[in-house]
Amino acid sequence: MPRRHAAAALLLGAGVVWLYAGVLTSLARQWASDDDYSHGFFVIPQALYFAWERRERLRTAPLRPSAWGAVLVAASLAVYLAGIAGAELFLTRVSLVGVLAGAMLFVWGRVHFRALLFTFAFLLLMIPLPAIVFNQVAFPLQLLASRVGESAIAAAGIPVLREGNVLHLAHTNLEVAEACSGIRSLVSLLMLAIVLGYFTDPRPGARAALALASVPIAIVANAARVAGTGMLSHWMGAAAAEGFFHTFSGWLMFVVAFAGLVVAQRLIACVHLGRRTGPRAVSVEA
User: Fold this and answer.
1) Are residues 151 and 266 in the same domain?
2) Whole-structure pTM value
3) Which of 13, 146, 156, 170 is the most exposed, having the fewest neighbouring CB atoms within 10 Å of its CB?
4) What pLDDT is recorded for position 56?
5) Do residues 68 and 116 share a domain?
6) Which DSSP string do the residues of the chain spell out, in sequence order?
7) Stretch 222-244: mean pLDDT, rounded?
């Protein structure tokens, strides 16, 4: 790499660290304090691995700096300033990924940018959703989990009455709170689906299908957790919905959801294999 490119990369890296130090520390604090986004600690190491895996491709790629990178950096900085002015953390955090991608494009060029495009996109998973978007997603998931839980509990012969996201049982009331909406397992399972698809299937369509499959799998697993908690509360008392049992059921259903994700990956792979090895038309001469 020419010295001027190395010097430019160092200067840009130092500038990014200086400008986004507060953004990075706030991200780390939220990952540590908010269980919905604790997976953020795993995103950056995984993204670095993706970049390292492309090291040979990056080393041999031609250096062709693009002015479009400067445009992307400028646009990302404008988003950063808008986030600062509006006290919107999401904008300042998203702009970080844009600045990194733009700097890559500006210093090294389009070939390097395309090689790391997946890595930059993966970094977006570390950014918590804006509160307005989170609430729009979480509340419908709470209601859905409540409805499915009510149906499953009633099917087991247990009297239950649902009011919104609250299930009234004979001996206790269960509230499907925001933390039990399933969005935590949904986001984490989505990240795992992307990583699993990346390592098991080179086809973009199959990877996208697996990522999409993680959504209903997470929803069904969380609904099953709500239903199971309701049944155990009826049979064992309110303690089944609190403390160790509540935490353990969350971990257990996430393991079940991941197992379902693996099954979905195998099914997608089998569909692809079936297409490749399917029967061929054979012409028979009379």
Assistant:
1) yes
2) 0.80
3) 170
4) 87
5) yes
6) --HHHHHHHHHHHHHHHHHHHHHHHHHHHHHHH-GGGTTHHHHHHHHHHHHHHTHHHHHHS--B--HHHHHHHHHHHHHHHHHHHTT-HHHHHHHHHHHHHHHHHHHTBHHHHHHTHHHHHHHGGGSPPPHHHHHHHHHHHHHHHHHHHHHHHHHTT---EEETTEEE-SS-EEE--GGGSSHHHHHHHHHHHHHHHHHH---HHHHHHHHHHHHHHHHHHHHHHHHHHHHHHHHH-GGGGSHHHHHHHHHHHHHHHHHHHHHHHHHHHHHHHHHHSSPPP-----
7) 75
